[in-house]
Amino acid sequence: MIRISYQPNNSSMAKLLMSGQTQDLADQGARRGAGVAKGLASGLGLPAEYVGSIEAVGGPPVVLGGNPRRTARVAARYPWLEFGSGRRRERPQGGRSPAYRVLGRTGPMIGNPPARGGGAW
User: Fold this and answer.
1) How much is the pLDDT for 12?
2) pTM tops 0.90
3) Among 51, 77, 88, 110, which is least packed, fewest CB within 10 Å?
């Protein structure tokens, strides 16, 4: 019988997760998400200012499982178009219901990146 002892190397894992290569992957996902969000917002007829304000931005590092990780996010100015104004009166999105929630709907639409051999995405 062979016994193998596993020793986790948190230092090497932290270096990998904070590398530029990992940030590139996070940025690619955020850019994909921004494209999906802009398409959705345009399709819903939202104002051009809102559609133009949707962008991919680098996020702050987070710590998960004891290791820091790079992040990126999709952000938009005019958050009241996303969440409403909180008033019971007329909604900023023209009174239509349900609320658009473009950024909230975008997440599930992004999915996983295509396989490496599948060409550009």
Assistant:
1) 83
2) no
3) 88
Please identify which residue in the block is written with the tokens 């958050």: 79
User: Is 60 exceeded by the pLDDT of residue 116?
Assistant: no
Rounded Cα–Cα distance for residues 98 and 107 (Å): 18
Identity of residue 58: G
Name residue, tokens 């999915």: 111
Upstream peptide bond of 8 is cis (omega within 30 degrees of 0):
no
Compute CA 17 distance to the chain's CA centroid, rounded to the nearest angstrom: 17
Q: In the chain, where are the structural domains located?
A: 21-109
Is the distance from CB of 30 to CB of 74 less than 8 angstroms?
yes
Q: Which of 79, 38, 78 is nearest to 55 (CA)?
A: 38
